[in-house]
Amino acid sequence: MRSLNGDLLLQRLAAQPGNKRYTRLYNAVRLSILDGSLPPRTRLPPSRDLAQELTLSRNTVLKVYEQLLAEGYLEARAGSGTFVTDSVPDLPPVPATPVQRQPEPVSPPALSQRGMALIANASAGPRQWGAFMPGVPDVSAFPHKLFAKYLNRFSRQPAPQHLTYNSHPGGSRELQQALVDYLRVARSVQCLPEQILITEGIHQALDLVTRMLCNPGDSAWVEEPGYWGIRNILRMNDVNLCPVTVDEAGMLPPDDMLTVPPRLIFVTPSHQYPLGSVMSLSRRQQLLAIARRQGSWIVEDDYDSEFRFAGQPIPSLQGLEAGAPVIYIGTFSKTLYPGLRLGYVVFPEPLAAAMMTAHAEFYRAGHLIAQNALAHFITDGHYSAHIRRMRLQYGKRRACLVALIEQHFGDGALHPFSSNAGLHVVLRLPEQVDDVRLAAIANERGVLVRPLSRYYLGSRKETGLLMGFSTLPEEDMRQAFGVLIACLQTHYPALRLTAEEENNVTDSRPS
Asked: Where is this region: Disordered (predicted)?
């Protein structure tokens, strides 16, 4: 039976300057066991003796012994002492000083074909806040302290059913009812609480709808140009994408597309994303007739519907006809803040029960405390009041950005489909400008714009930049706009501005 001499541990303790004494001793004993310096059945000295030999406190040694006993490196034998266990696995020797090696080339992970397709088409940017980032609200303007009071109310003494798996299909009953009342008044949506499913945002809702209603090989109409997130979800579910051109009145399906009925029709009728057009009444009626005749489901993404800066709100497509074949999707990401991760779906009654069950199976919904807090935030009137405040603020910021664009690019620079709504505008660019390259250059300089051409599926594309105005106060907008102009002038010198505009640009650049 072997015993331990403290010289080995003293050497290894000295090789670890700067660490705490407990950590140094733990690492020294463990490393000695792993590299065979302390072979199985080696007896360790009593904690008092080892502490005296190493000039450590006995408590430090005892804690190390206890940790190594718990991890299975040591075993205690009654009346005999502490020993290195026989069950330490055979491991290659561990060098006392790590050897510096050249990194070996790493093979790409073996992703599925769908996984590789998703990565190849991924468009979500690493930065989601800053000058001209489209589709993001001013999260700093949300009444966080007020909302925290509602969260605290439900967090102080939460009911058990709010902390376990969600036993009620669809989400919080209170939030479902609050949405029924709000959507009826604000969006002309007609539904019962049992038709509303609370989700973790738009993407989860789209994925659920696609999984449950489409078989591999089915077709879906999508807007051209349209939201890239919808396209990726359809690809991942083996659904064929059929782009349908959008004009100033919305989606316009040609006659030859009607020969193959789509399973799903995705539209943003209240504020088309990204161009901004509003679907006309005749187009809405035409689309509803097509869906009824061909047995299709319309998926209405009510994008940015709350933020119209002139005229009356546009009623939803869902509420246009009783029993319409429309799945209505909304989110709180634009009206409150994206990090809340709460959205909702209004299903036609024949689909609702199955969708609630499927959602519970796929995603195991939760966040009931946040849902109940939001329900009371809505019913007490704070949600509508917040939207009214932000509508006024965003209207001023939009006017400021539009004025800058017209000042430097002329009256025709805004896309002609742009309506006085939403959280972004589209700046049109000449065909010779590579909007993808320009956006990348601007992003490197902290100006977050998105290239319009990336929203097209087909070969016929318009070039331009999506520019959000909601996150940037008017007093900061001119400086950020000057950076964008400088990027254009540097990389596309043929787009020289007039002398007057040059002076305006110089004034708007950062000092």
From this structure: 85-110
So where are the chain's domains? 6-84, 159-380, 385-508
Cβ contact 410:298 at 8 Å: no
The answer to whether the CB of 447 falls within 8 A of the CB of 484 is yes
Tokens matching residue 309:
């800066």
C-alpha 190/C-alpha 316 separation (Å) is 10
Task: Calculate ∠ Cα 282-283-285, nearest 5°.
Answer: 65
Q: CA-CA distance, 12 to 29, in Å (whole number)?
A: 9
What does the pLDDT look like over 157-215, one tens digit per residue? 777 767 777 666 799 999 999 999 999 999 999 999 999 999 998 999 999 999 999 99
Residue showing tokens 């405390």: 369
What are φ and ψ of residue 229, in 5° steps? Answer: -65, -35
DSSP state string for 450-496: EEGGGG--SS----EEEEE-TTS-HHHHHHHHHHHHHHHHHH-TTSP
**pLDDT digit string, tens, across residues 462-498:** 999 999 999 999 999 999 999 999 999 888 887 655 4
The dotted CATH code for 159-380 is 3.40.640.10
Q: What is the pLDDT at residue 2?
A: 47
pLDDT for residue 391: 94
Q: Could you say which residues of the chain have pLDDT below 70?
A: 1-7, 14-15, 17-19, 88-109, 123, 125-128, 161, 166-168, 495-511
SS3 state of residue 12: helix
pLDDT for the residue 254: 85
Query: Model-level pTM greater than 0.85?
Result: no
Strands 196-199 and 74-77, sheet pairing: unpaired
Topology of domain 385-508, CATH = Aspartate Aminotransferase, domain 1 (3.90.1150)
Tell me whether the CATH fold assigned to 6-84 matches the one assigned to 385-508. no
8 Å CB contact between 344 and 337? no
**Residue 414 bridge partners (DSSP):** 427
144-156 and 368-379 are packed helices; what angle lies between their axes, rounded to 10 degrees? 130
Asked if residues 19 and 60 have their Cβ atoms less than 8 Å apart, the reply is no
Answer whether 454's CB lies under 8 Å from 436's CB: yes
Omega before 274 within 30 of 0, i.e. cis: yes
Q: Check if the beta carbon of residue 46 is closer than 8 Å to that of residue 85.
A: no
Q: Identify the CA nearest to 123 among candidates 288, 13, 274, 349.
A: 274
User: What's the CATH fold of domain 6-84?
Assistant: Arc Repressor Mutant, subunit A (1.10.10)
Helix (H, G, I), strand (E, B) or coil at 99: coil
Rounded CA separation 305/311 (Å): 12
